[in-house]
Amino acid sequence: MAKRVARIDWNDISLLLAVARDRQLRTAALRLGVDTSTVSRRLAAAEERLGTRLFLRKPDGYVPTQAGHMFLESAQTIEGQVLSIFNATRSASEEVQGPVRITSVDTLLGDWLVPRLPELLALHPKLEIRLLPEHKNLSFTHSESDLALRLARPEQDAALLMRRVGSFGIWVYGAPQFRGVTPAQWPELPWITYEDDLADLPQMRWLHAMAPKLRCHLRTSATAIITRACEAGLGLALLPAIAARDAKLVRLSDAPVHQREIWLLKHRATARIAKFRVVADWLAECIAQDEKLLLGL
């Protein structure tokens, strides 16, 4: 007797991916444009057809089982292939127009990119640029962002195209009253730093190695707040040169204490679409032009 083959269609795949990404049926339902009971019913039906549990319901949401992880890995591949099929049908010579979502750290977007955007929009006035400031990595496979500027080399991913396009200098700054303090005095002075969830940033590791008994007067996740607090004299700060260039601050280090690589990421499936190709090339060109500005040299 032939073994019965489970029938799973694209709607099942998109639903299961939504549950995995949102971990809550209600938010998955909003993403899919259906009600929560529909998601619950279709999830149960898909698990029944597959003959296994794909998710465990826990206090913090729906968590994939081992079988669920295996299914979702394949489902993400299928999703990427479907996106490639749709995007491959678009002409590479299409008009440069519509939304382009760019994610990066707040200072690279706000202090560097925004002042340059008039140039891009003068060339392509039908573009709609959407900036997504994030410290975490947004997913390209999940279509949450179109382009990204990352401050570290990403892990290899067959779905992504990536290239190093520049570097980013981080220096020690202080308000004018700190002018003249020496590096030997830095460990004894108050500092303004990022929150503990960003403790793995290279500049934060440098800071804690330099001052094991670090005295912090302010912690925040926003570079703009660190810059303003440093101007107010709350302490010294590690800041990107582009964040401090217009601030009322003095540079206390003779060289960057750290340099972060800038990597440009785009999705392989959408790389040929004109608007993404044009904006990506423009970003790379601008970063090359502003090499010294970004390093602070």
UniProtKB/TrEMBL annotation:
PROSITE patterns: HTH_LYSR (PS50931). SUPFAM superfamilies: Periplasmic binding protein-like II, Winged helix' DNA-binding domain. InterPro entries: LysR-type_TF_proteobact-type, LysR_HTH_N, LysR_subst-bd, WH-like_DNA-bd_sf, WH_DNA-bd_sf. Keywords: DNA-binding, Transcription, Transcription regulation. The keyword DNA-binding applies. It holds the Pfam family LysR_substrate. Residues 8-65 form the HTH lysR-type domain. It comes from the Bacteria. One of its GO terms (biological process) is DNA-templated transcription. GO terms for molecular function: DNA-binding transcription factor activity; sequence-specific DNA binding. The keyword Transcription regulation applies. Belongs to the LysR transcriptional regulatory family. PANTHER family: HTH-TYPE TRANSCRIPTIONAL REGULATOR (PTHR30537), TRANSCRIPTIONAL REGULATORY PROTEIN (PTHR30537:SF3). This is DNA-binding transcriptional regulator, LysR family. It comes from Solimonas aquatica.
